[in-house]
Amino acid sequence: VQLQASGGGLVQAGGSLRLSCAASGSFFSIAIMEWYRQAPGKQRELVASISRYYDTKYADSVKGRFTISRDNVKNTVYLQMNSLKPEDTAVYYCRDGLTDSWGQGTQVTVSS
């Protein structure tokens, strides 16, 4: 499985970004898909996940601001990020929980 993440960039505090992660492979629809992030000097942390049944979970720090979704026809998982804060600045990675495959990461920078 190969994952290609995109959509990162530079945005002002309060702004929005949508990350995308396109997956190859034929088992996407049954995989739990996750978004992680890693800020400089910090450990990688789980931001959001979505199961094959579309159950979602979020880190407390992003609840109410971020939304994870998936399109099983396009084999793509999304992370809609609203009301961004400077502390959301990090490299964001997608992960296929079924195969433990990781995307290459996309940089999100939020300026104050």
SSE topology sketch:
Elements: E1 3-6, E2 9-12, E3 17-23, E4 33-38, E5 45-50, E6 56-58, E7 66-71, E8 76-81, E9 90-96, E10 101-102, E11 106-111
Parallel strand pairs: 2-11
Antiparallel strand pairs: 1-3, 3-8, 4-5, 4-9, 5-6, 7-8, 9-10, 9-11
Explained architecture:
- The protein is mainly β.
- The chain is 0% helix and 51% strand.
- The protein is built from no helices and eleven strands.
- It has strands at residues 3-6, 9-12, 17-23, 33-38, 45-50, 56-58, 66-71, 76-81, 90-96, 101-102, 106-111.
- The strands form two sheets. Strands 2, 4, 5, 6, 9, 10 and 11 form a seven-stranded mixed beta sheet that branches. A four-stranded antiparallel beta sheet has the order 1-3-8-7, with no helix packed on it.
- The chain starts with a strand and ends with a strand.
Series of secondary-structure elements, N-terminal to C-terminal = EEEEEEEEEEE
Low-confidence stretches: none
Query: In this structure, how is the largest beta sheet organized?
Result: 7 strands, mixed
- Quaternary organisation of the protein chains: single chain
Count of strand segments: 11
The percent range for helix content is under 10%
* End-to-end CA span: 37 Å
Number of helices: 0
Helix and strand content put the structural class at mainly beta
Beta strand %: over 45%
Brief account:
This protein has no helices and 11 strands.
Defining traits:
7-stranded mixed sheet; mainly beta; 112 residues; single chain; 4-stranded antiparallel sheet; globular
